[in-house]
Amino acid sequence: MSVEQYVRAMPKVELRVRLEGGFRRETLQIIAEQNDIPESTKNYSQWLKLLDNPDFNRLDETIRVLASWLHYRDDITRVVYDLGVQLSKQNVKYAEVSVNPALFMVQGMSFEDFMNALNDGRDKVQRGWGVRLNWILVLPREEPRRADEIVRWATSVTGRKGGIVALGLSGKEDSQPIGQFERPFSNALKKDVPGVVQAGDVLQGEGILAALQQLNPARIVDGRGAADAPDVLQLLTDRNIPVDVSMARALCHGWVQNYAQFPLRDLYNADVRVTLNTDLPAFYKSALNDEYLAAVTHNAFTVPELEDLALNAVSGSLLPEDEKAAMQAEFRAAYAQLRSEHLSAEQTS
């Protein structure tokens, strides 16, 4: 077995993948035709082409338009199912999926109906493919007025029973001062709903530091600039806070020119609990196996270091501690067996 085959066989966890990252052209076309989208949407075919060949300067707009084609509960369930199938092909056993209700809750849909639609897809994925999904309910920075509503949903009995494990914050850091979100995140944490905060994409180290100090997140997403900010690195390691990165995202948005420039090695060597993720695989055209293989090919990660990254995702998840311990033991056993059966001593050093 080659290292590539080993990576594909490894059981994994993904902590940062957005629901819209599961969009498939074939499914969207079926949904669009059933909902009369080609007749009612200007430039329908051009929008569909932006899924195949994204314009990253128009990514948010493209996602909003494509998501608006979903009109019914079954449409949402189909997208969840598609994402679950894609995750299963990467040998992902568990994923925490970020969901922005503003994108997917069609007019007149109650929160209960929305959760039922998500969980219909989740149940089908678990029964059919053995992939377990939980949800991170996302508050866009551009919509601070929705904060109380999103927190209420995330902390409700319906939300918790429906698999919501965190409150997320996404969007451009410079759109709103982060202080606007301190109270909502504090209120959620008081009800045992932790925060997962996207930070660094615009303000880099300054933005990450503000998020850590004001929102007390369980995880940071992106973390752009962390490797160049000693005070941020110190805080991340002192608090043992995982950083969920997508190297494909950084590449597509021009933050790095190639995978080798991504500071994965710097973060890892600084003892940051870094995890590999895809974020928007439908648009960034990179699956989780590709991210792991890039760590080997471009960042000189060894097999034991890849296993560390994979186990970081397990320990950084928001599963109960006993379930995390059981999954870590299961993964370690699987890795040991795969190594002994298929890799040479040189490949595992």
Provide the β-strand percentage band. 5-15%
Number of helices: 19
In sequence order, what are the helices and strands, one letter per element?
HEHHHHHEHHEHHEHEHEHEHHEHHHH
Sequence of strands across the biggest β-sheet: 1-2-3-4-5-6-7-8
Query: Gap between N and C termini, in Å?
Result: 15 Å
What's the layout of helices and strands?
Elements: H1 3-9, E1 12-18, H2 25-34, H3 37-40, H4 44-52, H5 59-67, H6 73-89, E2 92-99, H7 101-104, H8 111-129, E3 132-140, H9 147-155, H10 157-161, E4 164-170, H11 182-190, E5 195-199, H12 204-215, E6 219-222, H13 230-239, E7 243-245, H14 247-252, H15 264-269, E8 274-276, H16 281-284, H17 288-299, H18 303-316, H19 321-342
Parallel strand pairs: 1-2, 2-3, 3-4, 4-5, 5-6, 6-7, 7-8
Helix pairs in contact: 6-8, 9-11, 12-13, 18-19
